[in-house]
Design a protein that fits this description.
Layout (H helix, E strand, L loop, with lengths): L5 H23 L6 H14 L1 H9 L4 H8 L4 E2 H22 L3 H20 L2 E2 L4
Helix pairs in contact: 1-2, 2-3, 3-4, 5-6
């Protein structure tokens, strides 16, 4: 694991907490995906606090999202669809309302295409009942 300064570790740690909170809100708001925010939180915790990462992996509610992704057991079709729709919604909102710079718009579209391809390539698993 790469060494990070204390400032970087704090940034990643607090970003992770914020992402977990957003992911938790996504459990109750269908338009907000949970999985992508928890995956990003996990990545932040890996860089800042192994203890926080283990807490997230072993959490009664959030842990399954992380384990499915990290262990490559797949995402449900519903999870993929929600994540891709939300991704494109946010990218398009940014594209039309937050920038008029052509280079930034191209970059946003490339990011959306790349993340969409990544999500589609993840194994699809049956939903847990």
């Amino acid at each position: 694991m790469a060494e990070y300064s204390n400032i970087q570790k704090h940034f990643y740690f607090y970003s992770g907490i914020l992402l977990v909170l957003i992911g938790a809100i996504g459990i109750f708001l269908p338009i907000l995906p949970t999985t992508i925010f928890l995956i990003l939180a996990s990545a932040c915790f890996i860089k800042s606090s192994p203890k926080a990462h283990q807490w997230l992996r072993n959490h009664k509610i959030f842990g399954q999202y992380i384990k499915n992704y990290e262990e490559k057991s797949g995402l449900t079709i519903k999870s993929k669809i929600i994540n891709i729709l939300f991704l494109w919604l946010m990218i398009l909102v940014s594209f039309f309302f937050f920038t008029s710079d052509t280079l930034i718009r191209i970059l946003l579209l490339l990011i959306a295409v790349g993340v969409t391809i990544h999500l589609l390539m993840i194994k699809t698993r049956k939903a847990d009942n």
